[in-house]
Give the backbone structure.
Amino acid sequence: MKVNKRAGLALALLLAFVLVLSACGSKTNNANDAANAGGNAPANSGNAASGGTGADSLKGKKIALIMQFNQGTFSAQYVDGVTKQVEKYGGKVTVLASDNDLNKMVSNLDTAINQKYDGILLDHGNADALTNGVNKAVAAGIPVVAFDSGLSVDGVTSLAQNDQMLADKSLEALAKDAGGKGNIVKVWVAGFPPMESRQITYASFLKKYPDIKEIAQFGDANQPQLDAQTRMEAILKQYPEKGSITAVWAAWDEFAKGVTNAIKQAGRTEIKVYGIDMSDEDLALIQDPASPWVAAAGADPSSIGQVQVRYLYQKLHGDKTDATVQIEPVFVSRDALPTDKKVTTADLGEYVQGWGKSDQGNTDYLKELEQAVGK
């Protein structure tokens, strides 16, 4: 009898233990089901630790900036904008300049892919040269954002200034100041997507103003400022009479600086210069009352760099970004600037509406990341 009681007690204890295990298993399964169904579990919890898409996981990224050329103050301010924005996100930028050699740019792109950079930024180049390498980067899972490259690759965001608007703003100012007539010189070079786009507007401009005649054109992307100055000096000798040249339209600020130097040295400041792109050095020349350079259309080069970085980090976060992003330019004329102080791109927004820091491409999580890194 005693033996039977002990057996019954053991059986009861065993049944109780089984029931406890069953209840625990049921709670675990219910919790898992709730998480999988998107219940009360926080979104992206644990992503930073596991290398997911949490904002904290964006810190410490290695970014390659691959440039077709890296010369002039516009490029310097653009690089500064890229570098400072990446640093605000806790990352590091390596600049790979290609000395205006597309083959070297392709090689630099391969280097960035092989060295497994976290993200790639492209500055200029063209689709023919870069498409294969960019496809290779995308296949390797490396996000790419390009500026003024003319690329159309799935998964890649291409930034560009509104080049036809840039040309239109500067050319319309020329036409207005010239009274719709006169002889002009065009400084331009083929083979660059932004230049080709600006040329479309220029061709329409000549049709719109038949009394404005192009008497000469030139342009070389190698040593652009020096080449523009030398070529303009020769044209001034070819047209020595005052009034024989009304204006110069320069499709790049490096060209504008070169022709400005030539015109000033020749004492032919009745010839006016209209340019594209804007930097601190450009502003100083436009503000100078003795300078023939009177106006330009452009976008803040530093802001362009910042916006490009933001879109790259959106991709690193796992967001789907737009295929193309347009950066709207503004028009800057000497008449809009003060005569009693020097203006830089940092304070230009005080005098020209639309210029300055842009919030384009920013997100709440990028702002949080910037604040976290700043601490």
